[in-house]
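Q: What would this chain look like folded?
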Amino acid sequence: MVAGIIGKKLGMTQLFREDGKMEAVTAVEAGPCTVIQVKTADKDGYNAVQLGFGAAKRLNSAERGHLKELGQFRYLREIRVDEKETAKVGDKLDVSLFKVGDKIDVTGISKSKGFAGVVKRHGFKGGPKTHGQSDRHRHPGAIGSTTYPGRVWKGLRMAGRMGGDQLTVRRLEVCGADVERNLLLVKGAVPGGKSGLLLIRKTGEGK
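A: My prediction, written as structure tokens:
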């Protein structure tokens, strides 16, 4: 069976374990998802399952033809599987895939911070704060390489757009799974802000 599901980040909260220890957890609306397409190595070159999540208000003709009578889904995502999948088109996936104690990998888009300098973006120290340096406090310093090679290296850390990257946090623990409310409680933080789309997979399964 597919070892993953699509979800939406609801926010962070806390819960208390049986021993009284408090844990910071992220609440995720996980599923329900519908299997839209099953891809195989023989036909498509790789094994994967395409899932649909969330209600869409309208679809274009190509989307209607692809989804057929399965419903109107806002998000479509693929989950790679190692072997030929046993799931069939139209199958429903929900939080029952996970149980308390499972380890999962969560993929999402990190919060966008806009244009940021090197101090905020890369943690640079900045320039000297004394000896007449009145405008160098948050500057990166020299970016050249003196005489040789006499140019700026590709990939040099500089100011620029910060955040908005796809990140995966691995081996997070499932602290709660409520099938009736499609609610998954994950220990710690996951990428993105509230209502951000997440791809949740069991650790070590799929890609």
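The domain at 4-112+166-202 is CATH 2.40.30.10 (Elongation Factor Tu (Ef-tu); domain 3).
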